[in-house]
Design goal:
The chain is built from two helices and 20 strands. It is α+β, with helices and mostly antiparallel strands and about 270 residues long. The chain has two domains: about 100 residues, no CATH class; about 120 residues, no CATH class. The strands form eight sheets. Strands 7, 8, 11, 15 and 18 form a five-stranded antiparallel β-sheet that branches. Strands 12-13-14 form a three-stranded antiparallel β-sheet, with no helix packed on it. β16 and β17 form a beta hairpin. α1 packs antiparallel against α2.
Length: about 270
């Protein structure tokens, strides 16, 4: 009994569908995070950029027979291009959307909203400088102007902004800080030459990985206001439904091809007794 061994690539489409399902799941997670932060001041929604995986070129290789069926003419090797074969999808990047959020008045003297592309510079607990659009500030027990989590807000010289224990705080549109009419400091508001290199770090913070921080020239500080999240609830819900359907379609494709493989395993190579 003669056995025949053949090597072939099994069900490429199953892997393409699986990659699509993974991307759809990542999209669902991203949208869910945007929805969870819809009430977070200064939050910038995250986008998900998708690209195709590298394609493969398919060719048909064959040996052409001689001109006559009975001729002994040697076959002529030939190949013909069939076309490109897609191999699936993959995540390209997850940048933030730095579009301006709606500004809402709060009446709190230590709340500051930014109108324009700028960011507040703050010093995190580990001493590193981070950037945020969340201007919900407070005055701590030591007189420092801080974010809600205790990160200190930086002034014009790069040092934390220190305020007296009492007094009316006024913040100008240029970020200048005065208490009871006496000048104290200026908020360190910066803009970036290349915002694509400003990466989300979590907790509504961004880290500069080559964005090119520089003093803000096109940003206005608005005291007594906060910038709302720029995540759109309605759009996010529509996107969430679309991504869930995309996931379901890929899952169905995987199941269909898996069933086909099961049938092939049971029937291919079966011999009649």
């Amino acid at each position: 009994m003669q056995s025949v061994r053949r090597v072939f690539t099994l069900v490429r489409g199953m892997y393409a569908a699986a990659s699509g399902a993974l991307v759809a799941q990542s999209a669902v997670d991203t949208i869910a995070n945007n929805l969870a932060n819809v009430n977070t001041a200064g939050f910038k929604r995250t986008l998900l950029q998708v690209q195709a995986q590298p394609q493969r070129e398919l060719f048909r290789f064959q040996t052409d027979p001689g001109r006559s069926a009975n001729a002994r003419t040697a076959g002529v090797p030939a190949q013909a291009r069939i076309g490109a074969l897609g191999t699936g999808a993959q995540i390209y990047d997850t940048p933030a959307d730095y579009g301006q959020g709606t500004i809402a008045a709060t009446g709190n003297d230590l709340d500051v909203a930014l109108s324009g592309p700028g960011f507040f510079a703050i010093r995190a607990g580990n001493g590193a400088v981070r950037y945020t659009r969340d201007g919900a500030f407070v005055r701590d027990q030591n007189g420092f102007l801080t974010a809600q989590n205790g990160d200190r807000v930086l002034g014009q010289g790069g040092a934390p902004v220190a305020l007296p224990a009492s007094g009316k705080v006024e913040i100008g549109r240029d970020g200048a800080i005065s208490v009871d009419g006496r000048p104290y400091d200026r908020l360190n508001v910066v803009e970036f030459a290349n915002p694509a290199n400003l990466r989300p770090e979590g907790s509504n913070r961004f880290i500069d990985v080559g964005a090119g921080a520089r003093a803000a020239t096109n940003t206005t500080a608005l005291q007594g206001s906060l910038e709302k999240s720029n995540a759109d609830v309605v759009r996010s819900m529509v996107d969430l439904i679309s991504m869930q359907r995309w996931f379901d379609a890929n899952e169905k494709s995987i199941q269909t091809q898996d069933d086909a493989v099961g049938v092939a395993v049971q029937t291919v190579g079966r011999t009649n007794a």
